[in-house]
Amino acid sequence: MAYNRTEAVDMRRAQHGSAAPKRKPQYQPRRAAPKPYVVEKSKRQLRIEEFRNSRKAMKILAVCSIFFFFIALQIYSQVQVDELDRELDSVNAQIAVVESENTRLSMELDSAISLEKVDDYAQNVLGMVKVENYQISYIDISGGDTVTQSGGKVQKSLWETIKMFF
User: Fold this and answer.
1) Nearest of 87, 85, 67 to residue 77 by alpha carbon
2) Structure pTM?
């Protein structure tokens, strides 16, 4: 199949390939910067503005100082807490050692003062014997309350004194 084309061929394009021709950049002349609008202020206005700026700077400095103070306080508090935690751990370790020593000594004391050992020591070393029924004597306290003082005086109880009064 044959195509019938009527397009014209641009020979400049054919010679340089298919890329577009390079153009030279067009420089635009620089425009002059607009002149700034200058406001002239009196000395009083300048002093007021300077005073306001210094007040702002002082406020910012005060806020930064307070912020720094709170950060330092937080760090100091954390250091104190860490120190107290270490001290608490040390004391807890000492308590554990003392409790184990107390348990050991209690067991040693219990084994040394068992009832059988005391009974054996009393019989063998001290020569003691167990009490017999004939050695027991009972005291009768069913009588009245009286106190005998040296010299033979008898002192009666408060109740007996009241009875004698009536």
Assistant:
1) 85
2) 0.40
Residue 135 DSSP symbol: G
Amino acid sitting at position 117:
K
Residue 153 · residue 137 · CB < 8 Å: no
Q: Is the dihedral of CA 112, 114, 119, 120 positive or negative?
A: negative
Question: Helix, strand, or coil here: 2?
Answer: coil
Q: What angle do CA 23, 25, 31 make, to 5 degrees?
A: 155
Which helix or strand (DSSP H or E) is residue 123 part of?
helix 115-124
Token pair listed for 145: 């309350």
pLDDT tens by residue, 72-89: 999 999 999 999 999 999
- What backbone torsions phi and psi does residue 39 show, to the nearest 5 degrees? -105, 120
Q: DSSP letters of 42-101?
A: -HHHHHHHHHHHHHHHHHHHHHHHHHHHHHHHHHHHHHHHHHHHHHHHHHHHHHHHHHHH
DSSP letter assigned to residue 36: P
**Which structure tokens are listed for 129?**
């014997």
122: left (phi over 0), alpha (psi -120 to 50) or beta: alpha
